[in-house]
Each structure stands twice: as structure tokens, then as C-alpha cells.
Amino acid sequence: MGSISLEEFDKLRSAGVPGLDCRPTNDFAKSHIENTINASINGSFEYMVYCFFNKDDKFVLIGNPSNSAEAFLRLESEGYLDLHIFHYELWNKETLSLERVKAKNAKSHLSVMKDVSNAEDWELLHVKGVKSVPLKEFVKTNKLILDGDVLYCGNGHKSMAAVSYLRSKNIVTTDIIGGLSAMLVESPDLEI
Description:
This protein has two domains: 6-90, Rhodanese-like domain (Oxidized Rhodanese, domain 1, 3-Layer(aba) Sandwich), CATH 3.40.250.10; 103-186, Oxidized Rhodanese, domain 1. It has a four-stranded parallel beta sheet with strand order 2-1-3-4, with helices on both faces. A four-stranded parallel beta sheet has the order 6-5-7-8, covered by helices on one side. It contains eight helices and eight strands, in the order αβαβαβαββαβαβαβα. By secondary structure, it is α/β, with parallel strands linked by helices. β3 (59-63), α4 (68-77) and β4 (83-87) form a beta-alpha-beta unit. The mean pLDDT is 94. 33% of the residues lie in helices and 13% in strands.
């Protein structure tokens, strides 16, 4: 499966067709196209896509030649049929980056921290005192997360998806690199 051209991608963007970046979270944080949402193919990919898009929605999958075909096939098998692929390497315009919180510094952000894991995962393990705001719930209403909040999940995939989605709605948040898994190692003084 080949990529659409930069010109075709620009036309789709101008027509309001959203972009879903399936590259790894670290790659997305370093460089991404404005107003695109990250749903890393390495995370709960289909679940994250389901949180943002209906099966009849049209959107562009942004990825690398090595992962975009797999992402396309996985979504096609779930019933998403109006998809296009755009290879990120073709983008030659301005990109954005995200500042993120290192897991070792998590404790200093407790007052604004929110867990975007599934409710079931939150019940099993979470940072004590941190509110659960599952990804699928806050996408329905942006009122549950505020500018300046610091988000996390189990490994950082859902939280990066959340941060990127919120930024596309002009709500500026950040995430904790590596999520709860990293905090367990790098911030052993947190109450879990």
C-alpha cells in the first residue's frame, strides 16, 4: 500500500479530513504535523482509534513505510473503510514537538496529574490520589481535563493519544514518558 502524495494530503487536510499518526509516541513527540492525533501502533491501537473515530469516518493514517500498511490492514479488518495512507517522510513543512515530563519528576506534578487508562486498569493499579479519566470518556466531553494537566496511562500510549487529541482542541496538556510502568521504576517514592 502506497502513500498518497503531499499534494493529495494537503487537499484532504484543507477539506477537514483528520490525520491519525500511528508512529511510536516518542517519534510523534519529537516531530508531528499540527492538529494530528497520535495512536501508536505499538499501543492499544484499535481501541484508541475507536475512541476518536467512527467506522464510517474518513481519515488519513500517517506513518512510516514500515508500519502504515499494518495499521491500514488492522483498521480495515475492524471495519474502517475510508482510509488513506500518508508517509510522514513526505512532509516537508513545519512540524511541532511536545515537551514531556520524565517519570522521575512525576511527584512534582501530582496536583495536576490524571490517569487516562481504562477504568479496569486504573482499578488494578494507579498513583494514589490521582483521578481516573478514561480516554473514551473524556473524548466525549473535553471538560474533564484542563490546560496544564499532566496525563499518564500504563505505558504512555493512551496518554500521548490524549495529549495530541486535546492539543487539536486547543487544550494544552502533557504526558509522563513511559507512563505508570516508568514511574514504578523511576519514582519509587510515589504511592501506588
